[in-house]
Design a protein that fits this description.
Blueprint (H helix, E strand, L loop, with lengths): L3 H23 L2 H4 L3 H15 L1
Helix pairs in contact: 1-3
């Protein structure tokens, strides 16, 4: 079982990824471009945490 800090980190990363996807769908690519690197880093971390 994950401790509370680890769980909180996963929830925060998941929240950012979900909000980033919404932003990618709603705004032009030029505006959302700065979020792309952090999106992929956090998405990779979530995948590695899950598997």
């Amino acid at each position: 079982m994950a401790d509370q800090r680890e769980l909180l980190s996963v929830i925060i990363a998941l929240e950012f990824v979900v909000l980033a996807v919404a932003i990618f769908l709603l705004v032009p690519v030029e505006v959302a471009a700065p979020l792309v690197p952090l999106f992929f880093v956090l998405l990779y971390a979530l995948v590695k945490y899950r598997f």
